[in-house]
Amino acid sequence: TVAAKSGDGILSKLGGGLASVAKIAAGAAVTGIGAAAAAMIGGVTAANKWAEQLDSLGDVLGTSADDSAAIAVAIKGVGGDVDGLTAQFAKLAGGLYDAKGELGPTGKEMEKLQISFTDANGAMLPTTQIIQNVANRLGNMQDGLQKTDRMTALFGKSGKDLSDTLAALAGNGLEKAREKSKALGLSIGEDGVNKPIMMGRAL
After folding, report:
1. What is the rounded distance in angstroms from the CA atom of residue 177 to the CA atom of residue 186?
2. Most buried residue, 128, 155, 161, 168, by CB count within 10 Å?
3. How many Cβ atoms sit within 10 Å of the Cβ of residue 129?
4. Which residue has the higher pLDDT, 198 or 130?
């Protein structure tokens, strides 16, 4: 089905780890490892890599495990680089305010673009809402020098490569990614992130 093909496409882009389990099991006879044991080891390794990626996203963006999964699925769905995005959004967040608590370079750029990153009381919005606001403003902007300049000002030199990612997150894109991550079993919650990491360290 179309849905199944879409799911397979996402899974194949998630670092290849999940897709490699069958290959590991197939080669078990050669190494003398039981197929079930080999598949288990491969599965743990893949789960550990996914958990670590979600953990890293959460550490940088301050997102929950499920929000991190949705963001990762959206990025991978357009062939984007999840690790690269964490650095890009860290650059954006780090420049919102300067050491004196005044607007920094990215904060001024956000203000110029009329992209909200604080609520009515001046408190910082949740990261997912900031990402959504940025995506809504820039995601559907026509490609060209102006868009490139805006993305570079917000995310650094590599920001120019975020066009597809922002387009995928614009509108209800993040919510669709959240639903897809749940359907694919990739939305694993905080325990689902912590347990594979601990298990991987124990192996």
Report:
1. 11
2. 155
3. 14
4. 130
